[in-house]
Design brief:
With 333 residues, this protein is mainly α. The protein folds into 2 domains: 2-165, no CATH class; 172-331, no CATH class. Helices cover 36% and strands 7% of the residues. The protein contains 14 helices and 9 strands. The strands form 4 sheets. Strands 4-3-5 form a 3-stranded antiparallel sheet. The chain is globular and about 70 Å long.
Length: 333
């Protein structure tokens, strides 16, 4: 029965969800075997060779804890992309993987980053984020007859039983301009316009601009502006280090402490907006020492309107701390 494990090739992995089978197939195969043999003898064929019935899906002993790496995203995966000679205009804003079509790009971020639903296997600790991957696992790894029925994936009984809603983001920032979105579809359309009409590329995406865009959420923006006035700041260098303020992979299920971007993206009205605005202020990267006689050129990450507003106060900078993109000085009025 162990020969029935599915092997996910590069073509299928490009158009479907990341699953546990695709990356560590041999190790998972043995892991499942070691679990099934001592714990689920009822899953094996009887002496006459007849297949087990769906009623024999029993498990003895407590369920194994969910591995922390179950919630890893596309940032830490290394799957081979489908080869195409067409222009890869779109890119994942998290892992920077490129795509030819808008639909592929949007589906990738929905599957690997947004993940509004999850499916947890009732016979082992496996977690999947697409119903079809869960069904394939239940059918091939646990010999589930019910999941093998010719029924639409979403209507299968075990799929409905395993479906769980996940905590989702409530806002997204743009890395090209200071635009905040509280709707996922609007966010994708906004970024697509930058790529399709504005000529922007992955090289123009700035993490610091993402943070600044997220600070435009109305409740947090009010506290942010109040904080700037109270500190008498007339000029600020808007820069945040990606490693100390970017997304924590797998948050919130991994239990790791959230960073600034997580707090801004998962913000809900019952949370303390002033506390988050204060953290954003504390996380600002100190301004760099300008290089002597260094020419000043407008950064590509800023659109024309923002650059026109800041160009008179930008400090020339040729040496930056790792992964900190400086957006220049912003005069608070």
């Amino acid at each position: 029965m162990f020969s029935q494990w599915p092997i996910r090739d590069s073509m299928s992995s490009c158009t479907s969800s990341w699953s546990h089978v695709s990356k560590n197939y041999p190790n998972q195969s043995m892991s499942e075997a070691e679990y099934v043999l001592p714990h689920n003898q009822s899953l094996l064929s009887d002496s006459k060779g007849s297949p087990p019935s769906s009623s024999s899906r029993t498990r003895s002993g407590p369920r194994q804890p969910i591995p922390k790496n179950s919630f890893k995203t596309c940032v830490s995966t290394h799957k081979q992309s489908r080869i195409s000679n067409k222009e890869h205009k779109y890119f994942c804003t998290a892992c920077k993987k490129t795509f030819v079509s808008k639909a592929d790009w949007k589906r990738h971020e929905e599957t690997y980053q947004e993940r509004v639903e999850q499916y947890q296997c009732d016979l082992c600790s496996s977690i999947y984020f697409l119903d079809k991957d869960f069904v394939a696992h239940h059918k091939n790894s646990h010999r589930c007859i019910s999941c093998a029925d010719n029924v639409q994936c979403s209507k299968k009984r075990h799929v409905q039983e395993a479906r769980q809603q996940r905590r989702t983001r409530t806002g997204w920032g743009c890395g090209f301009c200071c635009h905040f979105s509280n709707d996922w579809t609007e966010r994708c359309n906004h970024i697509a316009r930058h790529l399709e009409r504005g000529g922007n590329t992955v090289a123009n995406w700035y993490h610091s601009m993402v943070i600044f865009s997220l600070l435009q959420r109305p409740a947090i923006q009010l506290e942010w502006n109040r904080l700037l006035k109270s500190t008498c700041e007339q000029q600020l260098t808007l820069a945040w280090n990606r490693h100390s303020t970017g997304r924590v992979e797998g948050y919130p299920e991994t239990g790791d402490a959230p960073q600034l971007q997580d707090l801004l993206e998962y913000y809900t009205p019952d949370q303390d907006a002033a506390l988050i605005a204060g953290l954003a202020f504390d996380k600002l990267v100190p301004p760099p020492v300008p290089a002597k006689d260094s020419p000043m050129t407008p950064p590509n990450a800023l659109n024309n309107d923002i650059w026109e507003l800041m160009s008179n106060t930008v400090v020339a900078d040729t040496i930056l701390p790792t992964d900190a993109e400086y957006l220049g000085k912003w005069r608070v009025v």
